[in-house]
Design brief:
This protein is an alpha/beta fold. The chain has 10 helices and 16 strands. Strands 1-4-3-2-5-8 form a 6-stranded parallel β-sheet, with helices on one face.
Length: 314
């Protein structure tokens, strides 16, 4: 897959690209609704002898147009989104740098510059996709902007249990730590990236050494609690049990941010400073405060056994 970053205004013209079938969307999460849009573009391209393409945007529009400056966390930060789209077999990915100037484009200008000038012959987007200034361009009015230069497909709403499969729905799922439901809506496990740093080393004192994972703040943070996870480090995947939280047994004052500590099952070694990936499988329990270290050690051992049992059933 060829990844092309676009800064507005760009200088591309139709001769720069083969005939394309383009899927449009922000695609945070690349969930099953997004996958339907992208796969439709791939199928049309294959049928008509063209190349498939996806156009997405970075950063999130609300980070540029929002009234406050709060940091945006993503289900799939751009590097993960690129990999997921590549895995689907797309030929071209256009990543448009979202700016206020780009956002001010009128719908017709967006069509002329970002569809026609990229040699797009067919557009695929969800029923609720909007484009142009204030989102004034809608899919059900796209015919007024095409001027016969390309065709398009509108993908209908994708639902599960009569509820739309959406990034908003998935964000709420992550906030409760329901990774089983996340997998059902996306077809994969939730993944975060980070680096192993030096924590308080309490796990080692308790007989359960942990890797303190400093998760990139580009990700939506999982709900506090204990999880069965897999951790990828130095080229290998390992099963593990992870605690996300504020460790109330040890802290009278709540820390500013929760910690992510993974006890890697059947592993020993120094991985400080290593880049890792955490694959989130199942929430085992909520975080709680214990009455002393022995009670905590007993619970940690139960968590470890439950995680081992979970992975033993896979």
């Amino acid at each position: 897959m060829k990844v092309i970053g676009i800064e507005h205004p760009h200088q591309f013209n139709p001769d720069d690209y083969p005939k394309l079938v383009m899927a449009l969307g922000f695609f945070d999460g690349v969930h099953k609704g997004h996958q339907k849009v992208i796969q439709t573009a791939i199928d049309v391209a294959e049928k008509d002898g063209m190349k498939s393409a996806v156009m997405t945007f970075d950063p999130h529009p609300s980070a540029v147009l929002g009234k406050n400056d709060k940091h945006i966390r993503y289900i799939t930060p751009i590097q993960d989104k690129i990999q997921l789209i590549k895995d689907m077999g797309v030929d071209y990915l256009f990543v448009v740098h979202f700016t206020t100037k780009f956002a001010s484009l009128l719908p017709q200008d967006f069509i002329d510059q970002y569809i026609v000038n990229l040699n797009v012959q067919h557009v695929v987007a969800g029923f609720d996709y909007s484009y142009g200034k204030y989102g004034e361009g809608k899919m059900d009015t796209m015919h007024s902007y095409t001027q016969g230069r390309f065709s398009y497909t509108i993908v209908e709403k994708q639902t599960m249990e009569d509820s739309k499969v959406s990034s908003t729905r998935i964000r709420s799922i992550l906030e409760t730590g329901n990774f089983t439901e996340f997998k059902r809506l996306t077809g994969r496990f939730y993944l975060t990236r980070g680096t192993v740093g030096h924590g308080e080393k309490r796990g080692r004192q308790l007989g359960f050494p942990t890797a303190n994972v400093e998760v990139s703040d580009n990700y939506i943070f999982p709900a506090t609690g204990v999880y069965a996870v897999r951790l990828h480090v130095m080229g290998q995947w390992y099963d593990g049990v992870c605690n996300v939280g504020y460790k109330p047994t040890f802290h009278d004052v709540k820390p500013e941010t929760p910690s992510v500590e993974v006890h890697i099952l059947g592993f020993s070694g120094d991985i400080y400073g290593e880049s890792v990936k955490v694959e989130w499988h199942k929430r085992l329990r909520s975080e709680k405060k214990f009455n002393g270290l022995e009670e905590l050690k007993t619970q940690i051992d139960q968590d470890r056994q439950e995680a081992e049992s979970y992975f033993g059933r896979l």
